[in-house]
Amino acid sequence: MEAKLSKSCIKKVLDNRFINDRCKALSLIPKPNLLKDIKKATKRIKQAIQNREKIAIVGDYDVDGVVASVIISEFFDDIGVHTQVKIPNRFVDGYGLKKEIVHKLGNVDLIITVDNGISAHEAADFCFEAGIDLIITDHHNVPNELPKAYAIVNPKQDGCNFPNSEICGAQVAWYLVAALKDELNIKYNLSKFLDLLSIAIVADMMELKDINRVMVKAGLKYLNSSNRVAFDVIKTFFRKSHFKCEDISYLIAPLINSSGRMEDAIYSYEFLKAKTKKEAYKILEYIVDLNTQRKEMESNLFEKSLKLIDPNSKVIVVWGDDWHEGVLGIVASRLARRFNLPTIVFSINGDIAKGSARSVGSIDILKFIEEQKDLLLGYGGHKGAAGISLESCYLQQFKDNLEQSFAMVSKDQYIQKSEILGEINPKEIDFELLDILEEYEPYGQQNPLPIFTIKDAYVKNCKIIGQNGNHQKMLLECDDTILESICFNFVREVDIGKKVNIIFSISKNEFRGVITPQLVVKEVQIS
Prior knowledge:
Layout: H1 7-16, H2 38-50, E1 55-58, H3 63-78, E2 83-86, H4 99-105, E3 110-114, H5 121-130, E4 133-137, E5 151-153, H6 169-184, H7 194-203, H8 210-224, H9 229-237, H10 245-262, H11 266-272, H12 277-306, E6 316-321, H13 328-339, E7 343-349, E8 352-358, H14 365-370, E9 376-381, E10 385-391, H15 395-406, E11 420-423, H16 431-439, E12 451-465, E13 471-478, E14 481-488, E15 499-511, E16 514-526
């Protein structure tokens, strides 16, 4: 019989996750000069500052793009340099730098992109012909042919010596600021942005190992001691004494994302840069309202999508007329998680369909999309998430082609490396274990939240809680140990007196100042 997990064993397993990390402290993060073209970029920006040229920043409407825009524009504000900031509107401008956006910027001498631009060939050509120098900072996958830009800072490009290619756009922008500080030979507190960086890294689903893990851990501390008015207002509004890592995923990031999804990301940009509580509170109330609308829209679209899914498929591709573009990605994520299948959700507007893709397991969704590039008007993204556009008349052919491609994919690729560490000794679930689990935060991509099992636990008590009666609390007894548990959105009620096998994570339950370990149940089986 296999031995049950002890605290020392759990600690060893979690230690092994980071055994190959090169960077285990902020002091060890790679230097900016390892990024290709960064010296060329900063020299040009310095020249623009000295000559009082007109500088424009073009960001993106998701959390990563908004945060990147805040970081770089705030740096310029702090050193007294005026810049024009443009965050494209999802519904009016679409994604990334386009020549129409360059037109809107007017008479500018230098454009700096953050979190976009690596595929902006037409806009880059237009800038070149107009005599506008273009500096692209991005982290998305690099096309075979690079845009015609003055400088490109992207850790994924050939010839770049930066050791961590899987960083987000806000980190690339932060590194540009770090290099620019050195180029200008000024003192500047770069750590002031760690709170923002932690949010961008988590929201953009970067691997939480190596440099990313170090920056998020440090950033979470800064987030709780931040002087940024926006975070103080969020704490007040949602009655938070402090932020936990999960608050980034389930509270802060969705709020910042909501304005870009539903209306215009400029509201989130202005919220993060707000100087007074009054200003920040007013914007937050509006963003909260947009987020409520987003949840309703998402729920409606999710239900519509469920009716269109072929249960025998190895990939989900669904679409509908005038589906709200701002929630396609969230719906794709929910469908992918529910069915454990790569998912693409499209909205048809006239002759054009725009889609958002999410992957599962080890499947590189972007590679499969790229194979269909002859059908597409545009695409881009990551291994796990991508955006696509094509003429709506090709949707069925696109879906059929993907079905054929995914028929060749092995079942193993659909499976994420198991998060279940094993069966735990119930007596090991105590405050010391909570401290151990906290030590290895943040959990997320490539550092999944530890999941455990317990068998033959006796249900001493059970009650239904929650405004909608959709959560279940159980008091369990196992090996003479009493354990508190909660099952969110439970499927069926468990009767008192039954014995159960459970799969769960462990969290801190804070109630009236008392902290106790709590099992967060993922799955219950009657034993």
